[in-house]
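Quick one, tokens below:
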């Protein structure tokens, strides 16, 4: 409730409008700075090309710059590919942990009803023993184990 009150008082005092105005001004200033930076980089590349053309000839300079930019593009794509693969694996591990937590929460929510039912403790102990056995099996056989699945 305190957050809502502070938000409403911010609207009433005009503080929110001032914050939005400051954010918009900052965004415009940063956009202009980025634009000026790109122009500066363009002129630096042009100057480097002029220097290389005077030193090595225009054809060799154009060829060198073309190959150089293609190599940079390839490196950017390679790095992005590696990073997105690592991010996907990290998200998969997080989803797996979340699903385990949801499963445990659901099991704990159902536990009192199962204990009161006809089967009682037997209904719970069977799956618990099976899960424990599976956990022991998973702990002892690693997925990258070359002997796994060969019956050794």
């Amino acid at each position: 409730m305190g957050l809502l009150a502070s938000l409403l008082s911010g609207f009433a005092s005009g503080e929110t409008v001032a914050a939005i105005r400051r954010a918009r001004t900052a965004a415009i200033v940063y956009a202009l700075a980025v634009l000026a930076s790109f122009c500066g980089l363009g002129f630096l590349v042009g100057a480097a090309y002029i220097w290389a053309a005077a030193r090595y000839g225009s054809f060799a300079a154009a060829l060198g710059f073309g190959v150089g930019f293609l190599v940079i593009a390839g490196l950017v794509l390679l790095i992005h590919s590696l990073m997105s693969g690592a991010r996907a694996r990290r998200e998969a591990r997080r989803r797996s942990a979340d699903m385990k937590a949801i499963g445990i929460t659901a099991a704990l929510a159902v536990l009192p009803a199962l204990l009161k039912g006809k089967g009682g403790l037997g209904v719970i102990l069977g799956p618990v023993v099976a899960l424990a056995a599976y956990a022991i099996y998973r702990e002892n056989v690693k997925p990258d184990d070359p002997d796994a699945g060969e019956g050794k």
